[in-house]
Structure formats: C-alpha cells, structure tokens
Amino acid sequence: xxxxxxxxxxxxxxxxxxxxxxxxLTAIFGLMEIANFAHGQFYMLGAFxxxxxxxxxxxxxxxxxxxxxxxxxxxxxxxERTLFRILRGASLSSSVLATIALSIFLENLAxxxxxxxxQKIPTPFETGSIAFAxxxxxxxxxxxxxxxxxxxxxxxxxxxxxxxxxxxRATFQQREAAALVGIDIDRLYTLTFAIGAGVAGLxxxxxxxxxxxxxxxxxxxxxxxxxxxxxxxxxxxxxxxAGGLLLGLAESFGAIISxxxxxxxxxxxxxxxxxxxxxxxxxxxx
Amino acid sequence: xxxxxxLPSWLALSVTALILLxxxxxxxxxxxLHIAIISLVFVILxxxxxxxxxxxxxxxxxxxxxxxxxAYAAALLFLHFQMSLWLTMFAGGVFAASxxxxxxxxxxxxxxxxxxxxxxxFAEIGRLIAxxxxxxxxxxxxxxxxxxxVFDLPGLPRIDFSSREAYYYLALVVxxxxxxxxxxxxxxxxxxxMLALRENEALAEASGVDTRRIATTAFVSSAxxxxxxxxxxxxxxxxxxPDLFYFTYTTTMLIMVFLGGKGTIIGPVMGAxxxxxxxxxxxxxxxxxxxxxxxxxxxxxxxxxxxxxxxxARIRRRFxxxxxxxxx
Lengths: 286, 328
Fold this sequence. Notes:
The complex is a heterodimer of chains A (286) and B (328).
Chain A: H1 4-32, H2 39-56, H3 61-87, H4 92-114, E1 130-132, E2 135-137, H5 139-161, H6 163-173, H7 175-180, H8 185-208, H9 217-232, H10 237-257, H11 262-276
Antiparallel strand pairs in A: 1-2
Chain B: H1 7-27, H2 30-55, H3 63-81, H4 85-107, H5 112-132, H6 134-137, E1 143-144, E2 150-151, E3 159-160, H7 164-186, H8 189-199, H9 201-206, H10 211-237, E4 239-240, H11 247-260, H12 266-281, H13 289-303, H14 307-320
Antiparallel strand pairs in B: 1-4, 2-3
Helix pairs in contact in B: 2-7, 2-10, 2-11, 2-12, 3-4, 3-5, 3-10, 4-10, 7-10, 8-10, 11-12
Organism (chain A): Bradyrhizobium betae
GO biological process, one term (chain A): amino acid transport
Transmembrane segments (chain A): 6-30, 65-84, 96-115, 142-159, 188-213, 225-248, 260-276
C-alpha cells in the first residue's frame, strides 16, 4: 500500500510522454483526417537526433534538446510538404497504407544509421535520485512532467487565445468553411505538422534520458498513441492528454497485478471503451 | 463484371495450371520449392484478406492474428492429440473463425479509423497471450515438432508429405480449393452485398441489406481461410512462435492485396506470389531490404493505388486506344 504514490508517479511520467505523442497525432487527424501510422517515428527520430548531438558530437544536453526538436520539426515539415500533400484527399486505406510504409522506411533507416543496439542520452543532471512524500524519483523524470505541463499550457493558450489557434479550431470544425473565410489551410497544415512532430520528438529526447533509445521504439509509440487517442476520443485535444495519463496510470497499476500483461491493460481498456463509449471518453458523437 | 470466362482467360488459366503442375520439375532445388510453398500460403492469406479489404471495404489490420491462431491450434492439436493436417486444417480455420466472430461482436459496430486501430490492438493482445501463456504455448521458445501428414487410406497408395515436393502439391491443391471457394463467395449474392457495404453502407442498409450480418460473414469467412492457412504453414515449417502475430506479417499481406489490386482475387494472387519472391530477391541488398521494400510500397500506393490489375488495365486501354475510364 505504501507504494501506491510511487505507482501513481511512475504512471504519470510514462503517461505524459504518451500524451505528448498523442497530441500531435490527434491534431493531424483532426485537421487532415489522416491516421498517421508513422507518427511514433518522430518520437524515435527525436531521441536519435539528441543521441547524435550529445553523445556523438559532444554538445551539451540543452543544445542537443533544442537542436533535435528543430530537426524533427524540419523532417515533419518536409514530409507534410511532399508525401502528406499528395495523400490529402486520398482514401482512408491508401493513407493508412502509405503511412505504414513510411513508418517501416524510417525505422529501417534508423536501423541502418544508428544500429540496433539500445543507446542512452546522457543526462544533464548531477543528482542521482530525489525522495519526497514517499516517492523516489530522478530529476529526469521530474523534467519530463514539468515539460509536459508547460507544453499543455502553451498549446492550450495557443489554441484559445491566438489568431492561428482560432484558425486551427475553425478548420477542425469545418475545413471548407474555414478555407472560404480566408484561412490559409496549407500554412496551418504545415504548422500543425511541425508542432505535432516537434512535441513527439521532444518526448523522445526526454524519455531517452530515462529509458533506452532504439529504432523499434517508434512503432511501439505509434501503437500506444493510437490507444491513447481511442481512449480519449480521436481529434480531441483534452482527450489526448487525459487518455495519455490514463494509459500511463493503468499500465503502472497493471504491472502490480501481472508484469507480463502490463501492455495488455491498455488494450483491454480500449476494448471496454469501444464497447460502452465508442467515441472515446472525451469524444463528441460524430 | 463478366459472368462467363472468355477464351483467352481459359488459355491463360490452362497454361498457368500446367506450369504450376510441373513447377517442381522446372525449379528443382529445395530453396525455390520452399519459396513456392510459402507463396501458396500467402496466396490464401492475401485472397482471404481481400474478402474484407477489397470486397467489403473493411481495412482489417489483424489478419496475421487469425493466421497465427490457426497455426497455434494446429500445432497444439498435433502435439497433444496427434491430429494430422487433414483435421487440424479445419480445426485451425474454425478456431480462427470463432475468435473472429467474438471479436466482430465488438469491433464491427465501429468503422473507419476506429475499426482499423482496434484490429491492430487485437493482434497485439494475441501476441501477448502467445508470449505469456507459457504453460500452453511455451512463450518465446514456441512450439516445434509439428509433422506433415501422411495420406494412408486402405486400397490407395500411401503418400508421405514430408518431402518438399509432395508438400508443394498438397499446398497447391489446398490453395486452389480455397481460392476457388473465395472466388465463388465474392461472386455470389453474398459478394454483391459485401460490395454494397463497401460502396455505401447507409444505402445498402436502406435497400434491405443486413450490413451487420454481411460484415460479420466477411470477417468470419476471411478469418477461417487465414486460420486454415496457418495450419498448412504450421505443418510445413513444423514450428510456431509468437512472432507470427507481428504487425510486419499483416503489412506484408496488405501489400500483396493492394499492389495486386484489391477487390479482384486475381490481383492478390499475383501480389502474393510477387511479394514472396521479391523480398527473397532483394536479399542481396541485406540491410537495405526492408527500406527498399517499404519505398516500393510507398511509391506504388501513391502512384498506382489500384494495383497491378489496374495498371495492366490502364496499359491495355492505352494500346486498345480506348480513352474511357472503366472500373475493373
């Protein structure tokens, strides 16, 4: 019983990374109606860029963090301008298949560039572990949580109170009408892709200081992100965040019951949600 | 849609049949025969997936799970009860179909991206069960020692299918039978209802098609053939492991369906053969194999979404000088 706060804390740390990946997936789906099966690869690329910049090129962590997030954003923008522009308006199955192919391509590209061995991003912190209120943790984990909170607030403020945010929300609701009133859809798509990819990449960098970095992490992240958006309701910003945290917590507690089936907890949750609330916990009826 | 097969088609069919029958004599070596057998298994998988993806418009990403469930059922029945392929083939199919029916109760109420995502998740649950239920499945070690069958009826010659060549003919007969049945299903009133479901579900419903029932039929029958293919595979390789649940297999099957031409049966057959041979041929590029593979897929999905069948039709139209666009 004493360990319950610890489980909650661990769940929140992992859950916040899920939330960061899911936010971009949600935004891309809501705006462009493309289920991007390669989204987790942005997370993987972010981690490997940071690994290259810090461990291989010897830059300090913070420079590496900024550099790799910008790198992933550039990759996102290039992909949006090329592949995703062609896929716009394609059938659901074509876009799903194309993004699956892109996902396999990026994973194997990473495999060839960085090799299959798990790597680690050097931590910027001196202290090993911190204890408070019965919870043992590390500064890297606290950083993960803090960054997630900041990103969520920034995205919320950006969506609610800026001109661009309003334009994004308008496009979410009615694409054609938004274009009619003079919203530059192309610019919004590029911006959304850049932010979505960047935030996923950021999650990769931060989690890379806690766990290991390897090419296969992208595919798993995509799967988890899809679970999250199905839980929270696809194309719902709040749903993505809440779904991420919920999945993190559920996995953390699932590990108490059976470590082997930890990953199954999320899957079973999704099945239940689909059974009783097919639009997700926070989704609107479509 | 033609109801009768034309003369050139008959010729093509006869020539293909002849080549398939003498193939072991033509290619000889065990390695090529192995590829031929694996191609045949994938032909069943791709055509059965076509029932769902091509005809019914349901993009399922868990086809390999039904394949794996069939393979595990066959392996367990052989190892515990010494059942031969003649029985495990049907048992594997029925087991996969029953699971599909149960899963269908849940997932067939949703469409679009939710259906797609749930099927991915389901395949992953299957893998976790195969991986973790070690008492039954031996986890990652997998189950081995599944033997090919022996044909032994009184008064008839005894045939042992443990040689590659014999197993090739066995797989050829099973595959041909499956493809024929699948062709018959998709070209029957049931198949027409599947097309109605694909084209416009609301309209189909309004015209008196029980769409839920037809979706279930498509899901269950597609799983049956995948499970059967699983049994044929298990008795051939003699080994099953949780890796059979990997998403890569589903991707491979989808590539075969889409690149051959979905909703055509002949397309997935060609796709299955081509995409069993091509990755083998690409082995020369070693590490870059999957990269090349996915790049080809990407280019074809974007530039030839109607697959090889559509591409051939387009080329033929160009040579015939017909300008009009027409559906296959």
